[in-house]
Amino acid sequence: MTDTLASWLQSDAPTSRRQAVAGNAYRAVRSILTNPTAMAGLLIVVLLILMAIFAPLLSGGKSPLDQDLAMRLAAPSAAHWFGTDELGRDILARTLYGARVTLTIVLLVSVVVVPIGLAVGTIAGYRGGWIDALLMRITDIFLAFPRLILALAFAAALGPGIENAVIAISLTAWPPYARIARSETLTIARSDFVQAAVLQGASTWRILFRHIVPLCLSSVIVRLTLDMAGIILTAAGLGFLGLGAQPPTAEWGAMVSSGRDVILDQWWVATIPGLAIFIVSLGFNLLGDGLRDVFDPKSA
Amino acid sequence: MSEPLLVVDNLEVTFPGRTQAIRAVRNASFTLGRERLGIVGESGSGKSTTGRALLGLVPRPGIVTAKTMSYEGKDLLHCSERDGQSLRGRRMSMVMQDPKYSLNPVKTVGRQIGETCRLHLRTGRRETEQRTLAMLEAVQIRDPERVFHLFPHQLSGGMGQRVMIAMMLIAEPDLLIADEPTSALDVTVQNEVLRILDDLVRDRGMGLILISHNLTVVSSFCDRVLIMYGGRIVEECAARDLQNARHPYTRALVAATPSLDNPRAELATVIRDPEWLK
Amino acid sequence: MTFEAPSVETMVRPALGRRVATIAQRIISFLATLAVTFVGLTAVTFFISRLTKIDPVLSVVGDKATKAAYDLAYHALGLDQPLVVQYLIYLKRLLSGDFGMSVLTSQPVLSDLLRVFPATLELSTVAIIIGVAVGVPAGVVAAARKGRWQDHVIRVVGLFGYSVPVFWLGLIGLFILYGQLGWVAGTGRLDVFYDGEVTPRTGLMLVDAALDGNWEIFSNAFSHLILPAGILGYFSLAYIARMTRSFMIDQLGQEYVTAARIKGNSFWRTVWRHAFPNIMVPLITVIGLSYASLLEGAVLTETVFAWPGLGLYITHALFNSDMNAVLGGTVLVGSVFITINLVCDLLYKLFDPRLRSQ
């Protein structure tokens, strides 16, 4: 039974669209599985997701919000594997719950940035002319902005909080996706099957949506994964400065900041959450590198 | 023809791959004196790799082995890197296919040619310049002083290839390997470049290995011809004896060459026998 | 694209006049883009300033002002004008150097910015020197030894540079190198002990101390500078090494490199004397871009190291809701960032070797 499934997936001459799509997906997954960088990155990302989902379980039932001033700044021990912070909260629990915040930011930014980038890029690439010029000018302008500083300024104006941090980051993060989508669109729009769809009377929206966007997706996903690390670092930076998730919510950047004053004596308060940021960022970088090797080896 | 310049016995070049190794050159054996040897084959036949193996420039991860590979008695296979460097350019040299890519874009023609001179003959600046200009004249470049200061992208294909020849012959090597020297050039320019090569090789009494996919050029230019297919040498004969070649691949190649003297209604195609790859 | 005129050696380079015109065209287009982007940046900062929940009138007249005074100030600030006109007034003020007043320091924001800028300049410059001095050779070696252990080590070190949060690395650095080992000095530019002892000529501590001949202060300033500059330099070198490696791998696969070996050049001589000159132009633009991004990285680094530069100024202003200062700093950093980015873009297009043959 598995034999026939495998040969169906690996067939060089797929007989249906389903088979072709499934076959491509199968080959992509196999390439990822054999690529050590991608696997390492994938492992870390999966770990992040698991940490976030199972935080209550993994923290041994401890809450990230419970203060215990008698136990403040305790060193790592059996009772508190990663020690406690300046308010006596268990750092392991806070780190685990902090994964949820990180994941939330990652997802929200992706959900905002990818559609905007795809929309701007595909429309610019497909329509050409002055629409293209205008949209690309706007994209270039946003591309030239300094990401962190602008995010700071926005957060300063809008006030702290996760949603505002997400908006601030998204505003400067979308341009590369517009660029990618546009360059892919320019290639695809000239191809025969798009011309055929036009002749069939398909509307612009239909063509963009069902034909062009799906083909841009792989480049966009690779780029997104690579950008993810930068986004996490920017978000952590904002958290470090007190913009972002507000206390008492556990957020890794803010945790590093609160550990700053005691770094010389109680090093674990700042080190552990920072390590978490580092490892997750590393994971996305590895995964992105690996995905790029699989989907777009020329640009490696 | 006294001592052979080059002795090659059982040369093997293998590229280890992920699933299987690629044997680019298999059991190649030949000798070369101060004569012209042509190596003919299609892409992938191993002819270029053979040339690079002789110079010790097979790219990683290629592995080169041979029972013997020696130049004027010196072992090419096991020589040190320093010995290799003193051989390259000075005793053995190679002219590559496309001057658009084989000349350094950011250095002037004069500097690139002069470098070979300075590396091996240790000449001072003035003497290097004189020799370079003399060499440019030798390859029939009409305005050597002007061309001396040009950059490669300012040269036409024919000029670029002449610069390449000048660059590789200025240190007066005894052996020249010409790897598809005219394949990137327009037909009108090919003959000129070949003639220049012809004159220089004859005047200096050099040995020449001409690597090409073009049987006609090789057969008219060279004394002996090696035919390569699938990494193997399948035929070795004198250029004038090509009509009487024995291997079916060679015969097919000869038959496939169009001729103005004997026009045919249909050109023969080469039907490959998998047996040839064994 | 070259063309062959049979048996006539033609010069393929276009006439001098045409080339000058193309370059002029490119420069004009660059200036236009610069202007438009600057307008875009100021539009964004203007928009942000209008987003803020703080009433700008109140911050001028105070909470206890009468309605008449409020209305007067409202009119004087131009807040009753349409938004576009307000923006143009804002833009005009910026261009004449009026960035508003800082609530914190009660000084004009611009003079504040100019006061703190040299500290950031010193930090970034030393950082980029480290980045180039280590990153470029590292990238070259990684490319030349591609696939071998040198390459892997360099790539891993670079990868870490992309993944580690700068503020965390700064704290760890302080903890280990200052707290535990005492190899470097702590936060700030100088020990408190030396405060005010250096004649402020350029604002660059190392230069001023050297000009004073005061080597004790010089070495103290250096030991304060080395850790933050080293950390920023690490980020810079991670990026520079990666790009250098990528450029060099491209070049080392080219035929002219093999030709250089055929001539008898040794491997490393070929790498440095033949291949490397071909990447210098894109490399310079990469270094420029890295320098621009160092300005950003400085924000967090300065916060950790209490380094009195632009970044610290902006974050301080942030914590005290001093919007004029925040936005003024944003405009300054943003403008420098944009200018460097666009200049590098222009340089690249002007000197891209691929476009040379056209």
Task: Describe the model.
The complex is a heterotrimer of chains A (300), B (278) and C (358). With 300 residues, chain A is mainly α. Helices cover 73% and strands 0% of the residues of chain A. Chain A is built from 13 helices and no strands. The mean pLDDT of chain A is 84. Chain B has a domain at 99-172. In chain B, 36% of the residues lie in helices and 23% in strands. Chain B has helices spanning 47-55, 81-87, 99-102, 109-121, 125-138, 144-148, 157-169, 187-204, 215-221, 248-256; strands at residues 6-15, 22-32, 36-40, 63-65, 68-71, 74-75, 92-95, 175-179, 207-212, 224-229, 232-238. In chain B, strands 7-8-9-3-10-11 form a six-stranded mixed beta sheet, with helices on both faces. The longest helix of chain B is centred in the C-terminal third of the chain and has 18 residues, at 187-204. The relative contact order of chain B is 0.16. The mean pLDDT of chain B is 89. Chain C is an all-alpha fold and 358 residues long. Chain C has 15 helices and no strands. Chain C starts with 15 loop residues before the first helix and ends with a helix. Chains in contact: A-C, B-C. Chains A and C meet through helix 6, helix 7, helix 11, helix 12 and helix 13 of A and helix 1, helix 6, helix 7, helix 12 and helix 13 of C.
- The secondary structure category of chain B is alpha/beta
Indicate the low-confidence ranges of chain B by residue numbers. none
Structural class of chain A: mainly alpha
Structure annotation, total helices of chain B: 10
Level of helix content of chain A? Answer: over 70%
Summarize the main sheet of chain A: none
Q: Can you count the beta strands of chain A?
A: 0
Number of beta-strand segments of chain B: 11
Average pLDDT score of chain A: 84
Structurally, how many domains make up the residues of chain A? 1
What is the radius of gyration of chain B computed over CA atoms, rounded to a whole number of angstroms? 19 Å
CATH architecture of chain A: Orthogonal Bundle
Share in helix of chain B: 25-40%
Tally of separate helices of chain A: 13
CATH topology value of chain A: MetI-like fold
- Portion of residues in beta strands of chain A equals under 5%
- The SSE string of chain A, one letter per element, is HHHHHHHHHHHHH
Q: Report the end-to-end length of chain B measured between terminal Cα atoms.
A: 34 Å
**Oligomerization:** heterotrimer
| CATH level-4 homologous superfamily of chain A | MetI-like
Q: C-alpha Rg of chain A, in Å?
A: 23 Å
